[in-house]
Amino acid sequence: MASNVNPTVRRRRLGQELRKLRELKGMTAEEVADRLLVSQSKISRLENGRRSISQRDVRDLCGVYEVEDQRVVDSLMEMARDSRQQGWWHTFGDIPYSVYIGLETDAQSLRVYEPQLVTGLLQTRAYAEALVRGALPETSTAEIDKRVRVRMRRQERVTDANNPLRLWVVLDEAALHRVVGSKLIMREQLEHLIELSNLPHVTVQVLPFEVGAHPGLNGQYAILEFADAADSSVVYLEGVTSDLYLEKAPDVQKYAVMYEHLRAQALPVERSQQFIQDAAKRFAQ
């Protein structure tokens, strides 16, 4: 459930506004950095919303851009103040993918391609725990528990009756065969997947092995879209030590086209559900 003030989204919007002011002034990020005696990377991080923006940062940038309308300055200062508030995920402490959680929390729709695993928003607790334990073998029990609790909290967007996340998942057949935890855990997970796929705002399609080569062979990705027209869509690519966020229109469009191909090559919804049911039955033997 999205909070009224999402710091991640506020940082993105503020960064976009600051970039517009710089471009209207005809300045490069390097020129702004030289004027403020800071690194160019800091200006870039401020503009892409990956760094917290202080009111002092806003004041200094507005001075460089010679913003004369005090209402504009006040509005940007307020956004900076809101961007420093904490989202619900901060109560769990340090989370490596907190930027993504902030975006997901505010997203209106999410399109996901998963080549190996059941996507996080549709996982059972037992599957999630076994997955984290197997994927991060040197992680402490406390850290595993924290990650699982965060994942369960994220799933509230899927079942929220007032503001449900429109979720579309293309799942590679491999995810239905890989035994995560145990056969019992897998059977319960696949039954859970079928149950959630019956929700009107959740669509699950299976991409069978027989399709052969397809546009998703480069790996997992997600496309987040937002209700506010001011918030551009984002492509999220998960990494081991760092994540990648693509926001430029040509990049997003390329991944969107790839996703349309994946949806077209995947089994229709009804056949996908039957495919998952058959896989669940095999784990019951």
TrEMBL record:
First and last residue of the signal peptide: none
Entry-linked Gene3D superfamilies: lambda repressor-like DNA-binding domains
Pfam families reported for this sequence: DUF5753, HTH_31
CDD domains: HTH_XRE
Entry-linked InterPro entries: Cro/C1-type_HTH (IPR001387), DUF5753 (IPR043917), Lambda_DNA-bd_dom_sf (IPR010982)
Stretches assigned to the HTH cro/C1-type domain: 18-72
Superkingdom of this protein's organism: Bacteria
GO molecular function, one term: DNA binding
Protein name per Swiss-Prot or TrEMBL: XRE family transcriptional regulator
UniProt source species: Streptomyces bauhiniae
